[in-house]
């Protein structure tokens, strides 16, 4: 009798869990939604891997997806901006004047980029309650801010490229350079997802 009970319990558990699959399947749909939307960006895999964790928030909303992508971008720009400042502070005389100047200018550029990504995120929050021409206006604002952030990041990366390729006496600078290039990809993803809202 005891062994029969032990047999029945997992069977019951199986059906219980099977019955609970409905909400999980809803999340699965959201996952597919994110995968599909990411397919329209330049970096589909990075897009998917960085945003799929927010499936529950995104559901199947283009606006939410663009908000999440902008939030992720903002957090990453801030983190890289801190990296640049830390690298500048830690760079010894061996870093050379060229690399130090690039890091200093870059640090300013990236704070600017963070501010602009934040403004894009703010415009996207306004999108949620806007309709008609006001909606188009906010989407266009968000695109303007996010593409300005991308330009700032690109300028910073260009400044860092030559001195870090030359070694510059600082391997951390090379790592920071790679992180700036990576943040550009996240920004490009956010921009593509915002762009999608306008069409
Ligand atoms: C997923 O979405 C489709 C349509 O959007 C719906 O027909 C289907 O039932 C959903 N799947 C589940 C398991 O909820
Ligand atoms: C984006 O970040 C803001 C500020 O932290 C937060 O209030 C908002 O809920 C986030 N948006 C989404 C869609 O997660
Ligand atoms: C950049 O910042 C991140 C997060 O604060 C940290 O984990 C990483 O070690 C830093 N990298 C460099 C090269 O400073």
TrEMBL record:
Domain Pectinesterase inhibitor: 29-193
Keyword terms, alphabetized: Signal
GO molecular function terms attached to this record: enzyme inhibitor activity
Matches recorded under Gene3D superfamilies: Invertase/pectin methylesterase inhibitor family protein (1.20.140.40)
Entry-linked CDD domains: PMEI-like_3 (cd15798)
Range of residues in the leader sequence: 1-26
Lineage: superkingdom: Eukaryota
NCBIfam families hit by this protein: PME_inhib (TIGR01614)
Record-given protein name: Pectinesterase inhibitor domain-containing protein
Species for this entry: Zingiber officinale
